[in-house]
Amino acid sequence: MSPTGTTEMTASARAAALQEKIDNRTAVIGIVGLGYVGLPLARAVLDGGYPVLGFDIDQRKIDALDEGRAYIEHLGPDFFTRLAADERFSATADSSELAKADLILLCVPTPLGPHREPDLAYVLESTKMVAKVLRPGQLVALESTTYPGTTRDEMLPILEQSGLRCGEDFFIAYSPEREDPGSPGRSAGEIPKLVGGVDEASGNLAESFYTNVVAKVHRVSSAEVAESAKLLENIYRAVNIALVNEMKTVMTALGVDVWEVIDAAATKPFGFQAFYPGPGLGGHCIPIDPFYLTWKAKAVNQPTRFIELAGEVNTAMPHWVIERCMRALNEHRKSLRGSKVLVMGIAYKKNIDDPRESPAAEIIELLLDSGAEVSYHDPHLPNFPQMRKHALEMNSVPLSPETLSASDLVLIVTDHDAVDYAMVGEHAPLIVDTRNAMNRVPRFKAQLVKA
Asked: Would you say 428 and 339 are in contact if contact means Cβ atoms under 8 Å apart?
């Protein structure tokens, strides 16, 4: 008998038993974290023919799922109705239930600490939770973005504290999420998936499972390669966004429209990919992931000057936006202090209700610190949500001619399609546009300043 009281099996026999469950789609898939990553993944897994056991520490989410109530807008009410009606899906806040799962997928946040160091608290705590229910024959896969070595060096030792051994009793792999909230044709099941195991058996099992639930799987040689590839994807975007943000500041000083410059450059059919400037980085990946690599690089005494410089440029953008607002008001013989500023959009990208790491939060705080009277309008976020670094007790105001004309300045931070920009241009006296949103309106009365 094994230390856990189960009959001894060889590693190959355990792998074969789990492989059989994966092949005949009887494997129960546990998903830890039922948010922006975990829920779309649950739908893809269900569509792949597997039963899903969802877990979240927030009982309110469990209750909403049981009742079919939507709590992530861009997924749509039908998404939640389907989950509630599907007998193959269940959700719980009881972690002991995860013992029933054959595969456990961790979809938990990986934020930054106060000094921009990786905060693995959610990963480590969820791993400890899984270790308490770990049994022979299970596969654990991490989906959260993190630095190379997390799966092997941080998670594996915790799981082996159960007395079980990786590659013999259980298996572990890394397969990073690639969510693009609100973008049509980019659901979890349609985006190619990277998969890397800490050993060959773990990689084989993870590859076999994900092949059944997503359109395409790209297997890599190790968990570390998959972890690094995920960081490279997001650092690539962060660096190129920093480039156009810096171009924006130069073009503005030269009196040239940077958006027109980018569109012109994009006519080249090779050697150029268009990235667009903005008021700062937002979302759960781009503002955070580069710092995971720069932190890890310090451990091996390797400088990351290029990545760090990109981070400095991007994090400076909210302050640059405030400066543009000040100058715009000065032209109207007004000071930012005491001016009424209406912020348009607080989500980190258009057409979704996701405020994570949105630059709008910092911009609003900077406006308030400068003495401005600030309100906001966002058709997707009626209340300013609690955030890790920001606590703004504000509610979205209705967008009307009266609201616009009563403002000294309208600051477009997020360019939601649901906004009537023609009305904004007709009734706002002064617009500072960080997204080139007003370009869609052919003629308007307001004075426009791009930022």
From this structure: no
List every span in the chain annotated with CATH 3.40.50.720.
11-221, 243-450
For residue 130, give the nearest of 120, 119, 142, 118 by alpha carbon: 142
Q: Which residues of 333-347 are buried (b: 16+ CB within 10 A; e: fewer)?
A: ebebeebebbbbbbb
Distance CA 418, CA 174 (A): 38
Distance CA 47, CA 297 (A): 39
| The token pair that represents 71 in the structure block | 């709590």
Rg (CA), the chain: 24
Please tell me whether residue 425 adopts helix, strand or coil conformation. Answer: helix
Cβ atoms of residues 373 and 340 within 8 Å = yes
CA distance 60 to 185: 29
Q: DSSP assignment of 155-219, as one string?
A: IHHHHHTTS--BTTTBEEEE------TT-TT--TTTS-EEEEESSHHHHHHHHHHHHTTSS-EEE
Vertex 228, ends 225 and 229: CA angle to 5°?
85
Strand order across the beta sheet in which 29-32 lies? 89-92, 52-55, 29-32, 103-106, 139-142, 171-174, 193-197, 217-219
| CA–CA dist 262, 282 (Å, integer) | 21
Query: Over its length of 451 residues, how does the chain's per-residue pLDDT go in tens digits?
Result: 344 444 468 889 999 999 999 999 999 999 999 999 999 999 999 999 999 999 999 999 999 999 999 999 989 899 999 999 999 999 999 999 999 999 999 999 999 888 888 999 999 999 999 999 999 999 999 999 999 999 999 999 999 999 999 999 999 999 999 988 777 777 888 999 999 999 999 999 999 999 999 999 999 999 999 999 999 999 999 999 999 999 999 999 999 999 999 999 999 999 999 999 999 988 777 788 888 999 999 989 999 999 999 999 999 999 999 999 999 999 999 999 999 999 999 999 999 999 988 999 999 999 999 999 999 999 999 999 877 777 788 999 999 999 999 999 999 999 999 999 999 999 999 999 999 999 999 999 999 999 9
**Domain boundaries 243-450, corresponding CATH code:** 3.40.50.720
The class level of CATH for 11-221 reads: alpha beta
Angle at 448 between CA 445 and CA 451, to 5 degrees: 165
* Angle made by CA atoms 428, 431, 435, in degrees to the nearest 5: 130
State the catalytic residues: 285
Closest CA to 378 of 406, 411, 401, 426: 411
Give whole-number Cα distances, 47 to 26, 65, 300, in Å. 13, 17, 43
Q: Can you tell me the distance from the alpha carbon of 74 to that of 186, in angstroms, rounded to the nearest whole number? A: 12
